[in-house]
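User: quick one, sequence for these tokens?
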């Protein structure tokens, strides 16, 4: 489903108000860039895009989901440098300062994040960006995949990262929208639908080191392995029920936010694998992000560096794919 937003031209940006990301190549295949979701790991998108630009690879289509929509939207609006500076300025304290906790349909109201986006992106509209851009969201209630191809850019980004239980859903038109990773975590299909001839995707959950085979648990009576407590001289009557064992130390229980994010990440990873198997990209960039927490937004420098490293590794495959596609044009 495509949501085109209101037909009004209110907020239309004047000529030259949006900085072009790069001059498009005069000929050749149209390059699409699909940016996947992954919370704080999404800072690696910045590094990967920088490497592509430095190599002269300029996408004409950019699609994003969740944090991928935020980075992709800023890139398409010519504001990637501003986003990078913001990311590098984050500390643990500043991250907490951006959170406005509340009780309602989400733990975080998101007003402070929205104000920050509105300040940096002003009244930009998706259809007026220098690069063709669209984000993915999920319709609350129906579960339909929604493509946001028109309308206010900030609202399109907010709808795409409205993580259930963390951020409240965003109302656009007559629909309530939430995080797009529930239906299309790495929107390759959307990039192709917008006219991309070659699609490069950045999958934040594609780290091969994070993949593992199923684990079969063999139930073991751990209590039986513990040495019995020394017998005292005066034994209580209930000793006949069995020997007393020393209690095993309990594992610390993670907080609610950690449980929600990890559970969401597991679901996102499974959906990503299924979607990419059905509609594979031409080239995949997979940063090694298994050691980076989903809420560790203060580790932007490390995430950007990992994105740059993964993109540099993928450059030979990207160039070969583009050369092959150019020969067919």
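Assistant:
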């Amino acid at each position: 489903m495509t949501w085109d937003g209101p037909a009004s031209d209110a907020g239309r940006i004047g000529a030259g108000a949006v900085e072009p990301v790069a001059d498009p190549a005069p000929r050749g295949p149209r390059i699409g860039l699909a940016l996947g979701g992954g919370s704080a790991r999404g800072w690696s998108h910045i590094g990967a895009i920088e490497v592509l630009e430095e190599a002269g690879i300029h996408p004409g289509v950019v699609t994003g989901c969740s944090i991928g929509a935020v980075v992709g939207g800023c890139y398409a609006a010519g504001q990637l440098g501003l986003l990078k500076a913001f990311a590098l300025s984050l500390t643990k304290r500043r991250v907490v300062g951006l959170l406005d906790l509340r009780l309602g349909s989400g733990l975080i109201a998101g007003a402070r994040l929205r104000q920050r986006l509105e300040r940096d992106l002003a009244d930009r509209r998706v259809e007026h960006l220098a690069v063709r851009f669209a984000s993915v969201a999920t319709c609350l209630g129906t579960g339909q995949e929604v493509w946001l191809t028109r309308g206010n850019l900030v609202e399109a980004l907010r709808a795409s990262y409205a993580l259930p239980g963390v951020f409240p859903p965003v109302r656009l038109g007559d629909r309530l929208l939430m995080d797009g990773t529930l239906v299309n975590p790495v929107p390759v299909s959307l990039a192709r639908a917008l006219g991309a001839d070659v699609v490069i995707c950045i999958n934040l959950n594609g780290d091969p080191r994070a993949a593992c085979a199923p684990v079969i648990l063999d139930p073991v009576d751990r209590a039986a392995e513990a040495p019995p407590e020394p017998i005292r001289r005066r034994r209580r009557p209930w000793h006949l029920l069995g020997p007393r064992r020393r209690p095993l130390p309990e594992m610390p229980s993670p907080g609610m936010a950690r449980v929600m994010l990890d559970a969401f990440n597991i679901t996102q990873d499974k959906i990503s694998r299924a979607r990419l198997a059905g509609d594979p990209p031409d080239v995949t960039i997979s940063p090694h992000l298994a050691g980076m927490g989903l809420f560790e937004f203060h580790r932007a420098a490390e995430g950007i560096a990992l994105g740059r490293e993964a993109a540099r590794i993928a450059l030979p495959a990207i160039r070969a794919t583009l050369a092959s596609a150019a020969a067919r044009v």
